[in-house]
């Protein structure tokens, strides 16, 4: 029989090691996106009763939460919230989710900048500043990936 000599405090210290790999700006965005995910779900419920809500993300925008664009925006926000949750609570899948999140965000921004003006009437070309955050986000996640994957978590 193996005896575990670790105290509860030792286990807690192991748990927060991965979070220490995240820079402060990423920790702040984790909380922002977790909040946005909750608000996105609430706006979807609000829209289910026939109400309108302004939704906009990555260049996609609508006032109708129950529409193709509205559901896409809510899905993006919920995915970002799940990714932020995974990073904050140091889940094993957090790095792969973050990479998917950042690459999908870059792809959606590029589509909304270059393709949407030709598809949607009254749409104008706009530069999406989100890319300025998504590229360093991807680079930082790639940089900490090896260490994240090789640290022990609870």
Task: Describe the 3D structure.
- Keywords: Membrane, Transmembrane, Transmembrane helix.
- The chain crosses the membrane at residues 24-46, 66-88, 100-120.
- There is one protein chain.
- By secondary structure, the chain is mostly helical.
- It has one domain (23-146).
- The protein has helices at residues 8-15, 17-20, 24-48, 68-88, 94-114, 116-119, 131-149, and strands at residues 55-57, 60-62.
- The protein has a two-stranded antiparallel sheet.
- Strand 1 and strand 2 form a beta hairpin.
- Helix 3 (24-48) runs antiparallel to helix 4 and helix 4 (68-88) runs antiparallel to helix 5 (94-114).
- The radius of gyration is 19 Å and the shape is globular.
- The model has no long low-confidence stretch (mean pLDDT 87).
């Amino acid at each position: 029989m193996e005896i575990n000599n670790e105290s509860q405090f030792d286990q807690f210290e192991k748990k927060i090691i991965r979070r220490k790999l995240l820079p402060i700006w990423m920790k702040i965005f984790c909380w922002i996106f977790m909040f946005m995910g909750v608000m996105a779900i609430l706006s979807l419920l609000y829209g289910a009763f026939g109400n309108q809500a302004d939704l906009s993300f990555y260049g996609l925008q609508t006032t109708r939460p129950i529409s193709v664009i509205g559901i896409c925006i809510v899905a993006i926000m919920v995915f970002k919230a799940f990714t932020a949750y995974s990073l904050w609570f140091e889940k094993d899948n957090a790095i792969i989710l973050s990479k998917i999140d950042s690459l999908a965000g870059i792809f959606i921004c590029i589509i909304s900048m270059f393709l949407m003006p030709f598809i949607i009437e009254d749409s104008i070309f706009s530069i999406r500043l989100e890319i300025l955050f998504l590229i360093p986000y991807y680079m930082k996640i790639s940089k900490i990936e090896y260490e994240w994957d090789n640290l022990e978590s609870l």
